[in-house]
Amino acid sequence: MTTLLLAAEEPLVRWDWVSDHTDDITAALRQHVQLTVVAVTIGFAISLVLSLVAVRWRWTSEPLAGFCSVLYAIPSLALFGVLVSIPFFGLGFRTAEVALVSYTLLILLRNNVAGLDGVSPPVREAASGMGFERWRRVLRVDLPLASPSIIAGLRIATVTTVGLV
After folding, report:
1. CA 109, CA 47: separation in Å to the nearest integer?
2. What is the rounded CA–CA span in Å between residue 90 and residue 121?
3. In the chain, is it the N or the C terminus that has fewer CB atoms within a 10 Å radius of its CB?
4. In this prediction, what percent of the chain has a pLDDT beyond 90?
């Protein structure tokens, strides 16, 4: 008859180790947050431009989504391995950011396009009737009305990036 080990001999967390390595933990946390914030910020800027292009010229929507889907489908370890082997990237911050940004693009692009598509045509017509130029209407009407979908995409992309980092 075998006996079950109900309690581990070692504690789950060794608080003495944590207190001895507070500087290392703080540095790792700072690096983790930096990688995440930079990747989501750059990914958001790129995806916002891509989504404005996709909404303005509808024929570009599918190719852009397809390209971002291919980037998203590449396993992270494989992508890191390929990027590290390229002399320009090497092993470092730039390599990690390129990979992390590529994983945010699909999520952000789809949410941005869905939000911009969700703006009702009568609202757009009213803005045009009030004399808004196209770029001004996008900035003052379309983007604010699309913000719930855009923020949802940012939330999902941030959680995904935290998991990858």
Report:
1. 5
2. 48
3. N
4. 58
Return the percent helix, strand and coil in the chain, to nearest 5: 80, 0, 20
Q: How far is it, in rounded angstroms, from Cα 62 to Cα 58?
A: 8
Cα–Cα distance measured from residue 9 to residue 104, given in angstroms and rounded to the nearest whole number: 42
- Could you read off the pLDDT of 60-74 as tens digits, one per residue? 999 999 999 998 888
75's enclosing H/E stretch is none
- Measured between its terminal Cα atoms, the distance across the chain in Å is 45
Query: At 118, which helix (H) or strand (E)?
Result: none
Count of other CB atoms within 10 angstroms of residue 111? 23
State whether residue 31 is helix, strand or coil: helix
Cβ proximity of 119 and 126 under 8 Å: no
- Cα 3 to Cα 86: distance, rounded to the nearest angstrom: 54
Cα(63)–Cα(60) distance, integer angstroms: 6
At 5 the pLDDT is 55
pLDDT computed for residue 111 by the predictor? 96
> Would you say residue 39 has pLDDT above 80?
yes
